[in-house]
Amino acid sequence: MRVLSTLLSALTLVAACCTNGAHAQRWEFGAGVGGAFYKGDLAPSFNPVFTRPGGQVFAKYNPSYATAFRLNVAYTGLQGDGQRSPDVYVAELQPHTFSTPVFETYAGLEYNFLDYRNPLLKRERGTPFLFGGVGIFWFRPGGPEAVGTSAIQPMLPFGFGYKYRLSKHLNIAAEFAARKTFTDKLDGVSDIDQRTGWQRGWKFTEDMYGFVGVTVSYTLYAIICPFDYNDVPY
């Protein structure tokens, strides 16, 4: 699968960067909690009513102040209820519901707009950031669309956030991330209802899901730079 090949290439690139830059490694490890929500045939837009709790862990390699390679693993749940859809047709004629756990992993790149990790910039403690990547997710197919649907699917994560340096090692961030999938069967609704013959969904638009949350991370420094971090007040 092309997406899996791209994911492996990204991980190889991260490993190569870590090896070639061993004299200036900056590893960062963290975890976060938040909520996931779904967008698809039962919910034309992200609806906070369908939010489910979730968590994630991640590792980052920071080759510079502006960029970071990120490997992320997350577990959450998704749900939707046609009866609560703002679409009248869906709410009255297709009151389908679904619920599924989701396990995902992705590799990506973050871009920081400000040098918030630079100890020489004492007033630069936070920065907005953007990120994107490639990954895969597992879910439990349900409904009439379950037959012939693979439980493992590719996805493209992308989003934005704001991170803040609490101290030399500790960081906190808030982020919003959307997951672009390549399946219209995440919610078990697609195309024509085989039982009634009615239109259940629009097969030419794929489902999506998103995650909003807060993370805390700890940065490890392989070496001490020429200036003394102890002289930098926090």
Care to describe what's here?
It is a single chain. The longest helix has 19 residues, at 2-20. This protein is mostly beta strands and 234 residues long. A hairpin with a 5-residue loop joins strand 2 (52-61) and strand 3 (67-81). The protein has an 8-stranded antiparallel beta barrel with strand order 1-2-3-4-5-6-7-8. Helix content is 11%, strand content 47%. It is elongated. The chain has 2 helices and 8 strands; from the N terminus they run H-E-E-E-H-E-E-E-E-E.
Identify the quaternary structure here: single chain
End-to-end Cα distance, whole Å, is 48 Å
- Strand fraction band? over 45%
The CATH architecture comes to Beta Barrel
Give me the CATH fold name.
Porin
Radius of gyration: 21 Å
Envelope shape: elongated
Q: So what's the CATH class?
A: Mainly Beta
- Enumerate the spans where pLDDT stays under 50 for 5 or more consecutive residues: 10-25, 224-229
When the domains are counted, the total is 1
Largest sheet data:
8 strands, antiparallel, barrel
Mean pLDDT, nearest integer?
Answer: 78
Number of strands: 8
| Helical stretch tally | 2
Question: How much helix, percentage-wise, in residues?
Answer: 10-25%
| SSE ordering | HEEEHEEEEE
Kindly name the structural category. mainly beta
Q: What order do the strands of the largest sheet run in, or round the barrel if closed?
A: 1-2-3-4-5-6-7-8
Give the tags:
mainly beta, 11% helix, 234 residues, Porin, 8-stranded antiparallel barrel, elongated, single chain, 2 helices
Topology of helices and strands:
Elements (H helix, E strand, L loop, with lengths): L1 H19 L5 E14 L12 E10 L5 E15 L6 H6 L3 E16 L13 E14 L12 E14 L4 E12 L26 E14 L13
Antiparallel strand pairs: 1-2, 1-8, 2-3, 3-4, 4-5, 5-6, 6-7, 7-8
